[in-house]
Amino acid sequence: MSTTTERPKPQVDEIEKSIDSFMGRLARSWKKLLILAIVLAIIWFGIAPNIGGWLQYIAYGFFMLFQLLFAVLFMVVQFGALFWFLARGRTYWVKPGETGVGFQDYRGNPEVLEVATRVVTLLKGVKEFKQMGGEVTRGILLVGPPGTGKSYLAQCISTEAGVPFGYASAPSFQNMFMGISNLTVMMLYRKARKLALKHGACILFIDEIDAIGQSRMANGMGGMGGAMGGLFGGGGSGLLNELLLQMDPPPHEDGWWAKFKRNIGLRKKKVERPLVLTMGATNIAETLDPALLRPGRFDRKIFVDAPDFDGRKEIIKYYLDKVAHEDMDLDRLSSETIGQTPAALKFIINEAVINAHFNGRVKIGYQDFTVALDNHEVGLRHPIRNMLEEERRALAYHEAGHAVAMLKLYRRERVTRVTIIRHEGGIMGFAMTKPVQETYTTDRAEILSRIQVALAARASEELFLGTQLSGVFADLQQATRAAAAYIGYLGMNGSLYSTAAFGEGVDTGMRREIDKLLHDQFLKVKNLLNMNRDLVVAIAETLLQRLELSGDDVVRIAEEVERRKLRGEVLPQEPELDGPVSVLDLLPTDSAIAAAYTEPRKD
């Protein structure tokens, strides 16, 4: 007895569905099949019987195809080489230890050095720190004025950590061709990750990062501006977006061998991201995009400010020890360089060496340091030898007014220079002060004193020359700004309302208040100069003789004028507006003040 085995119902349905699907695809592709059949028929019935005659055409076709492929390959190689050349980052790669500077060379800012030491400790102990479950910092933003040593600090960290150091300038990433800037950043970080795999970590320092990291909302990168940015200005916000991605990328591997093994299933362990520490430097951190400053990117900020008194003293000693020098009072040098940065101090000492060399000295002294400091602060002298006498006299009384006001009003600053010699930048003359010591706050009286000092030149012109001159342009601007801050920002006029809260300008009512304040301070300083007419005349007439006075000269003249007043001596009077001139010569002889002075000239 035979039994027949029937197929299960589901299997039958599956076969039928497969047949239906095949027939459906065949029905939809009948046009392609028809064309293929026609081509095969032409080859079989037309070409195959006469293959000998068609060989030359076939060979020619292959030759043309080879030429076409070669041309395409040549264009690909040519454009690839062009883009590779354009996308090369202008980055200086320094191997571990090649910077030549370490923490023993970083002076003047111990608090910053302490933070940098912690960074080095983390870079050296990456494995131990990860075993604790921590994530090593991947971004440090150095913020501070120019010349405070931000890139220098980054080099010191690289040397102490024993890792490669890459120095790049952010503006060099920008390119006029769309996508090249992004490619530059990609290639830069790819190389940094390779070096990090080899050495354990890598430091990538990007200077002036605000050039590419400005806030996308502030500079209007959206819309048409962002689309056109590729041709004008480095690709809009695309460059910033690429930087954001490369600073905190998803776990991935750049090596082709690792990718191949992962694709075939031979590499299944977790991807380890190599440690690339991005260090950015900027002077204007407030303009940076918030995405750059979030944790995971620049999640740590180090403020590198100008050094204080002790810091300057340490820096000056460090650089003086590198050159031949006489014994100099470091406290005095530090007091005279308030506000100077480490880069400026290094420059000043080098300029002092140059000055000593060209004056035939083998060691620098205080005089060389002073000359170098003056050239750095006020620039080189460009005297006008053919200036009219009346113009020179007007300039002398202009600056004498400033000098007397500074001498009488400033409590925490001292006069260091009064000159009527033209300097760089077209400055015809100036009276300069320096702080006696670092100050970090300013009170109401000091702001009013600054307004009076700025207006003292106009008061001197009216008192002693009987006219008003155009040289007060910058003085009035400075006085007006100080008065606007006094009233509108600092709440020192009785009102606590600040215009800075809403970014408001100066309205009509505030203009009247500012003008009233300026007028009141002008009358006060004019009265001050009128009470010290002898001193103004003495300084102005000595300026006409010597063209330039030091701060010590001004103090000696003031002391001499006061001494003669107490002794009841006749002091020279201010000149008539169109008459004879009196000249006072009170320059020092040895350690004393010269008592003799020339009497007024006769007609």
Could you explain how this protein is built, in words?
- This protein has 603 residues and is α/β, with parallel strands linked by helices.
- Helix content is 54%, strand content 8%.
- The protein is built from 22 helices and eleven strands.
- It has helices at residues 9-28, 30-47, 51-87, 110-124, 126-131, 150-161, 180-199, 210-213, 223-228, 238-247, 256-263, 290-293, 309-320, 330-336, 342-358, 366-378, 389-409, 444-465, 473-489, 508-531, 533-546, 551-567, and strands spanning 91-94, 139-143, 165-169, 202-207, 276-282, 300-303, 413-419, 430-435, 548-550, 588-589, 592-593.
- The chain has a six-stranded mixed β-sheet, sandwiched between helices. A three-stranded antiparallel β-sheet has the order 8-7-9. A two-stranded antiparallel ribbon has the order 10-11.
- The longest helix is centred in the N-terminal third of the chain and has 37 residues, at 51-87.
- Residues 221-235 and 576-603 have low confidence and may be disordered.
